[in-house]
Amino acid sequence: MGNLENHFGDDASLDAKDTKEILDFLLKNSAETSSKQASLKFLNSIGNKDIIAMSQTTYWEKTHKKIDPKLFKHEQIQSKANCKACHSDIEKGLIENENIKNLSDFK
Q: Which superkingdom is the protein from (predicted)?
């Protein structure tokens, strides 16, 4: 949030009100403030690394290692960053096994 004028080569600058609203949300909903098991595992797997994507953590790699990398290119998934394609409860900050779509749904 501190360098949005150079966000991966794009200017993603926001006005002060929107910046504060988003930053407040991020701080309130960060892994550091969660008691959810998956959040803690993600946080522990980051360590001192400067990681900007959950898919770059050792926890993500461990839990997704049996998935064929080609599946992430499926038209309904498109990338590792599209958590919602498989995890229907991700927007609530949850990653519950019973809410993960069956991989055969994407074949």
A: Bacteria
- Residue 22: other Cβ atoms inside 10 A: 13
Beta carbons of 57 and 42 less than 8 angstroms apart? yes
The model's confidence at residue 72, banded by pLDDT at 50, 70 and 90, is very high
Q: What is the pLDDT of residues 22-64, one digit of tens each?
A: 999 888 878 887 777 788 888 888 888 888 888 999 999 999 9
Tokens 């949005």 -> residue: 4
The two structure tokens encoding residue 32:
């550091």
Cα Rg for the chain, rounded, in angstroms? 16
55 to each of 2, 42, 78, how far by Cα in Å? 22, 10, 14
What is the token pair recorded at 92? Answer: 């609530």
SS3 (DSSP) at 85: helix
Phi and psi torsions of 32, nearest 5°? -65, -20
